[in-house]
């Protein structure tokens, strides 16, 4: 049984959960994810491990309610159990000591970049984190990111907090100032990761992104998570989820993520029906 | 009638008893099992056809060497408990094997009767005995030897792993099965659809293993959650069996294969069977049903996908690049598929999948083939006919062209020897791998094979593992090497 030992609300539809999963906590590294099911009839959904505590035997997940499964999860309380949690899956992010690493987290993507930022900082790199959100109340984990970084820059689409604009504007500023950037790590919505990769490419700055295609098993058995990277098919669950952003076919990824749009709407309808 | 066989059939000719089935028109709309199974009367009548050969050839055709005349005799005289006891002596999953084994190519093809008439329906009788036991709640668990104090880890809860678990628990070892998915059974639950093998039957067999003391832990991916060295050095397992199957789906590399609506058979079947996608939105996992579905391939997996698509309301077309004669699927399954109205486009190869601006499949371009000279596999090689391209207007495509070795575990295990296709190298008589105490069998050693071969491997490996754990020497029948 995977007990929810703590649940917090980070912004209106974003939650933080600590889950009792000692085997996974023992092994989890930045960049890895779990697949879980909320119940016997639930689907398998992947969520990045935002943090883990070996001693306590817990892993932390941060998720946004976007559809039926994440809404069901959002309705769970501290002390409730999840049926299945499997992991840690995927390859850990490659972390090493570099001169300057820029970490870009967009929206909910701040949760998965957090352990990566911390990892780079602990390895002795200088870490500048750029956090972006649509508006002030949607910004999550700012304090944690301040601890995990050398410097943090915040921007919001509507200018309600930090600099007004997109993360790419801030990153462009850094590049133009002539900051000697060794690597960029960007996690967030697909259009954001695509834009960051497009920006850094002409400068030849290595850019890692974390891809989130639709998954089923997460062990390389189904091929649902296939993405095209450098013209070759890769399975994000076993070959990733981190890939070189300059090689990723983002347009294909976006289309594939939308595969079940109409079915997802049907699922939400049954959810309302069930909860009546 | 002259009879060259010294065992003269004493009975008058009873024809092979047909298996009552759900009518094709009905069953294309549901996922209930297709054949209903024999009644006790029919089973006894069919069993009476067996002439009890002194040197039964059928047994030689069975990869696990079931005492076929023995269990059939017991059915003939109505002693069903005895028949299941005999079956279970050599086969831990008779209800499964009675349903999915290719008997027509194994035991039944060798049946003496088949010279003059139809062979004894060995598979149907096996299924009958197993079902009788389950339905009568008279399951006798084998006796378990006193504890040996040895701990064994089985990785993968498919037929190979479950066989090893069942054998070793009875010998007094402590057995833990680690399964990556949230449900044990391997291909039996995620691949083979319920209309051919109800999940309930697999669950029942696993419950029996648990009743014997086997611990089954789901949601553990060995190679990720634990590595093999960790299992042995930190978790204290004395031996490990690897039965992880060969589940890596292959694609063809044609344009359009990543469009929305293109599935590997593994994904399609997993969504439908394991995740209950056929019952979406009651179950949460969606599945594109499609109006017209093309299934590429000609094996059992292709048949299962085609029949699933049909049941989900689609027009279902199997596209196969050779002719019907070369199809690797079981004859019975091809026959069932034809009855259910599945279309076959033989000598047809897909060249590209077409999509719309939303990335959804709207068609598949195909090429007609003719058969040329035999290739390495001995089958005549399909050769494209120039200018024969045409477009099949389908909206879902299921790629069922085979599976390979999944590197997740094998590549994360230092010192594990693999062959050039990345399957695990294991001794053919013992299942021993290049790592002491680690054994392997089933599809991960053979490449995609069958349930019974996987079980045969499990049986063989469990014997060797037991000897290893008890410090007993291997039997000296193997040629000595210095
Ligand atoms: C490696 C990986 C890590 C992820 N980490 C996080 C995370 O830390 N926090 C977070 O909030 N989200 C994360 N996601 C996305 C998360 O899995 C989806 O939000 C979730 O599956 C949506 O399910 P749903 O039923 O609530 O929504 P649905 O209504 O089913 O879908 C909404 C959208 O979510 C995506 N989605 C749906 N099903 C899946 C699936 N099985 N796998 C992946 N994406 C799917 C699709 O783009 C879909 O359009 C991650 C995805 C991947 C692949
Ligand atoms: C659709 C389909 C139809 C088939 N039809 C037939 C048929 O009619 N008759 C027949 O005889 N054969 C059939 N087969 C083939 C047969 O099912 C396989 O040969 C057989 O299941 C192989 O058994 P196995 O134990 O080696 O592996 P599998 O059944 O593949 O089981 C392996 C198990 O290991 C688990 N696993 C994998 N990696 C890990 C890991 N790292 N850690 C933990 N667990 C792991 C998997 O999740 C799985 O549960 C069919 C196969 C398919 C796909
Ligand atoms: S999720 Fe199935 S192969 Fe990656």
Structure notes:
The complex is a heterodimer of chains A (276) and B (482). In chain A, a hairpin with a 2-residue loop joins β1 and β2 (14-20). Helices cover 29% and strands 33% of the residues of chain A. In chain A, α3 packs parallel to α4 and α5 (167-176) runs parallel beside α6. The model of chain A has no long low-confidence stretch (mean pLDDT 92). Chain A is of the alpha/beta class and 276 residues long. In chain B, α6 (94-100) runs antiparallel to α7 (122-135). Chain B starts with 23 loop residues before the first helix and ends in a 12-residue tail after the last helix. Chain B has helices at residues 24-27, 40-47, 57-61, 68-76, 80-90, 94-100, 122-135, 159-170, 187-190, 199-212, 228-233, 265-274, 300-311, 331-339, 407-410, 443-446, 451-470, and strands spanning 151-155, 174-178, 215-217, 239-242, 248-249, 262-264, 292-296, 315-319, 343-345, 348-355, 361-374, 380-384, 390-392, 396-399, 403-404, 438-440. In chain B, α13 (300-311) links the parallel β7 and β8 (315-319). With 482 residues, chain B is α/β, with parallel strands linked by helices. Helices cover 32% and strands 15% of the residues of chain B. The model of chain B has no long low-confidence stretch (mean pLDDT 91). Chain A binds chain B through residues 23-24, 27, 37, 41-44, 68-69, 83-89, 216-217, 219-224, 226, 228, 233, 238, 252, 255-256, 258-260, 263-264, 266-267, 269-270, and chain B through 180-182, 218-221, 224-226, 247-249, 251, 257-258, 260-261, 263-264, 266-267, 270-271, 275-276, 280-286, 288, 358-359, 406-408. The complex binds flavin-adenine dinucleotide (2 copies) and FE2/S2 (inorganic) cluster. The site of FE2/S2 (inorganic) cluster has 12 residues of chain A, from loops.
């Amino acid at each position: 049984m995977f007990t929810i030992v703590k649940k917090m609300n980070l912004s209106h539809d974003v939650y933080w959960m600590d889950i009792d999963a000692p085997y996974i906590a023992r092994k989890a590294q930045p960049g890895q994810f779990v697949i879980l099911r909320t119940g016997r009839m639930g689907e398998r959904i992947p969520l990045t491990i935002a943090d883990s505590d070996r001693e306590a035997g817990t892993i932390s997940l941060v998720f946004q309610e976007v559809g039926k499964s994440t809404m069901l999860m959002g309705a769970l309380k501290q002390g409730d159990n999840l049926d299945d949690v499997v992991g840690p899956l995927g390859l850990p992010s490659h972390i090493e000591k570099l001169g300057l690493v820029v970490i870009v987290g967009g929206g909910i993507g701040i949760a998965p970049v957090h352990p990566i930022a911390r990892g780079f900082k602990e390895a002795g790199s200088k870490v500048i984190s750029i956090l972006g959100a649509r508006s002030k109340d949607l910004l999550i984990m700012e304090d944690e990111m301040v601890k995990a970084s050398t410097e943090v820059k915040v921007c919001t689409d509507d200018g309600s907090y930090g600099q007004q604009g997109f993360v790419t504007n801030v990153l462009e500023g850094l590049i133009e100032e002539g900051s000697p950037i060794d690597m960029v790590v960007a996690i967030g919505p697909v259009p954001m990761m695509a834009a960051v990769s497009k920006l850094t490419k002409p400068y030849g700055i290595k850019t890692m992104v974390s891809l989130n295609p639709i998954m089923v098993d997460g062990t390389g058995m189904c091929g649902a998570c296939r993405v095209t990277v450098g013209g070759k098919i890769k399975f994000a669950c076993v070959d990733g989820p981190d890939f070189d952003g300059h090689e990723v076919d983002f347009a294909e990824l976006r289309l594939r993520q939308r595969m079940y749009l109409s079915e997802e709407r049907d699922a939400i309808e049954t959810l309302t029906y069930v909860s009546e | 009638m002259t009879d060259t066989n010294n065992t003269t059939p004493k009975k008058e000719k009873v024809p092979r008893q047909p298996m009552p089935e759900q009518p094709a028109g009905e069953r294309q709309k549901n996922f209930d099992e297709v054949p209903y199974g024999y009644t006790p009367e029919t089973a006894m009548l069919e069993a009476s056809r067996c002439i009890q050969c002194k040197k039964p050839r059928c047994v030689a055709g069975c990869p696990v060497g079931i005492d076929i005349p023995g269990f059939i005799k017991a059915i003939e005289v109505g002693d069903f408990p005895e028949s299941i006891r005999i079956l279970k002596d050599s086969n831990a999953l008779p209800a499964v094997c009675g349903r999915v084994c290719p008997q027509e190519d194994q035991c039944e093809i060798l049946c003496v009767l088949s010279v003059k008439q139809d062979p004894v329906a060995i598979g149907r009788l096996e299924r009958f005995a197993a079902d009788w036991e389950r339905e009568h709640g008279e399951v006798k668990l084998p006796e378990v030897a006193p504890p040996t104090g040895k701990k064994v880890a089985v990785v993968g809860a498919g037929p190979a792993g479950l066989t090893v678990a069942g054998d070793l628990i009875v010998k007094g070892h402590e057995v833990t099965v680690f399964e990556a998915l949230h449900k044990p059974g391997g291909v039996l639950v995620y691949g083979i659809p319920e209309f051919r093998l109800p999940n309930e039957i697999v669950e029942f067999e696993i419950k029996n293993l648990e009743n014997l003391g086997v611990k089954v832990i789901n949601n553990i991916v060995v190679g990720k959650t634990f590595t093999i060295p960790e299992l042995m050095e930190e978790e204290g397992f004395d031996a490990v069996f690897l039965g992880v199957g060969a589940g890596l789906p292959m694609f063809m590399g044609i344009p359009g294969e990543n469009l929305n609506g293109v599935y590997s058979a593994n994904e399609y079947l997993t969504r439908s069977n394991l995740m209950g996608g056929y019952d979406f939105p009651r179950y949460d996992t969606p599945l594109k049903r499609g109006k017209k579905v093309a299934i590429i391939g000609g094996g059992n997996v292709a048949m299962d996908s085609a029949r699933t698509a049909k049941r989900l309301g689609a027009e279902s077309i199997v596209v196969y690049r050779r002719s019907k004669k070369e199809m690797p699927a079981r004859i019975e399954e091809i026959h069932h598929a034809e009855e259910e109205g599945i279309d076959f486009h033989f000598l047809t190869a897909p060249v590209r999948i077409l999509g719309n601006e939303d990335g959804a499949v709207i068609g598949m371009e195909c090429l007609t083939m003719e058969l040329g000279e035999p290739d390495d596999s001995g089958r005549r090689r399909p050769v494209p006919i120039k200018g024969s391209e045409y477009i099949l207007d389908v909206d879902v495509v299921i790629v069922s062209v085979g599976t390979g070795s999944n590197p997740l575990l094998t590549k994360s295990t230092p010192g594990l020897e693999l062959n050039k296709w990345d399957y695990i190298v294991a001794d053919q008589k013992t299942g021993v791998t290049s790592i002491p105490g680690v054994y392997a069998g089933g599809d991960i050693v053979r490449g995609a094979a069958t349930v019974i071969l996987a079980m045969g491997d499990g049986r063989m490996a469990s014997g060797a593992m037991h000897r290893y754990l008890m410090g007993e020497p291997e039997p000296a029948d193997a040629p000595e090497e210095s």
